[in-house]
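Possible regression after last week's pipeline update?

I re-ran a chain I had predicted before the update to compare outputs. Posting the input and the new output here so someone can diff against the archived version. Not blocking, just want to make sure nothing changed silently.
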Amino acid sequence: MKGRLLISAAVVSLGMAGMAWSQGNSATAEIEKYREMLGDGNPAELFEMDGEALWATARGPKNASLQKCDLGLGAGVVKGAYAQMPRYFADSDKVEDLESRLMTCMVKLQGFDRAELSKKPFGTANYKSDMEALVAYVVGQSRGMPMAVPTAHPKEKAAFELGKQIFFYRAGPYDFSCATCHAMTDARIRMQDLPDLTSPAGSQRAYTSWPAYRVSQSLFRSFQWRLNDCFRQQRFPEPTYASESTIALTSYLATMANGATYQGPGIKR
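New output (post-update):
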């Protein structure tokens, strides 16, 4: 019943946005109203509950839970962890984002194979992703907290600089970069605003609303998925899941959002 109500609300709201567009009103304002309408009943909460259960369930070859996983604030501490990621982890000697860090814990604590975990990290209409459920749970525990991605370690600084280079790197059949769409103000593709991710204000607003539930897909989407989809739209080769390049790009975007209040999981069209 809840799902049907959400879908009905989405249809009605999208219809309102379409009417506003045809009448010359602000489509952006109508879309914001639509998001606010669904905000109190964000279906991401269902994924958060699944992720919380997975976090505490003994699984894998070692039959262990993730309750001793260190996300940067100490073993088992989830509250506020996402707002301080990506970050450097001494045990892996790497800068890791949330998804790569979850894989590290799943390999180390539960005995899963990293290559197998990387094969199907994103959900579909016929496949529920454990990784995305875990992501939903963890990010929900940082809601309302300030972004404070650390930058003191040399590898954190290097990740930021590499991510910045990737953001402005132009290639592919259309000679696109991330900056092609996200380095200007007042830009839009179809009815979707394109935030300026080269400015703190634009980065803060955009980054703090991801990961998010996508109404059009009826699925929760992680930030690695978001980057994967951006590369697809640029006609770039699909990046390796949780690769150094995607973590570096996340480091750049997350650091640019420092100081803002994390509002996710968000809800998208």
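Follow-up from reviewer: compared with the archived run. The two ends are 20 Å apart (CA to CA). Marking as no regression found.
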